[in-house]
Amino acid sequence: MDMLANALxxxxxxxxxxxxxxxxxxxxxxxxxxxxxQKHFNYLPKEALKITAAHVDASLAAVFSMATFYKAFSxxxxxxxxxxxxxxxxxxxxxxxxxxxEIYKTLGISPGETTPDGEFSLETxxxxxxxxxxxxxxxxxxxxxxxxxxxxxxxIEGYRGAER
Length: 164
Ligand code: FES
Prior knowledge:
The chain is an alpha+beta fold. The chain folds into two domains: 3-69, no CATH class; 81-161, 3-Layer(aba) Sandwich (Glutaredoxin). It has helices spanning 3-21, 30-41, 46-56, 60-69, 89-93, 96-107, 149-161; strands at 81-86, 120-125, 137-139, 142-144. The chain has a four-stranded mixed β-sheet with strand order 2-1-3-4, with helices on one face. Helix 3 (46-56) packs across helix 4 (60-69). The chain starts with a helix and ends with a helix.
């Protein structure tokens, strides 16, 4: 492993310890700790779960099962921009699979995957309650209505060029 990777790993570990150490060592804070970790890293690294378990004196298995129980947590790294395609009934009828297909053609990712450069993740979600706007895409928390493959490519281009 090169020096940069080592330095990054040390910085990550320091950040984990700081977040976890900011809470009293009690199990009732496990969820709050994990929320902070998820916010910081955009996912829950295994190392962070180990540190959390040791801090609150719980087993890694207990912390791990909590992490998998809540949908808000991810155990794998997610992209900078999360693309959520609604695949509820109305959106499905209005061709959300075509949008999912177009994302695959453009970025090479299927639902649950992240591009190798860490820029985009794709998820499918159930009805967002905006069926009149079907098919709906939510990118980076912003809603895009009545998506077409062409509109989708534009959205992706916009995020590609966007400043970090
Ligand atoms: S099915 Fe997509 S918003 Fe309702």
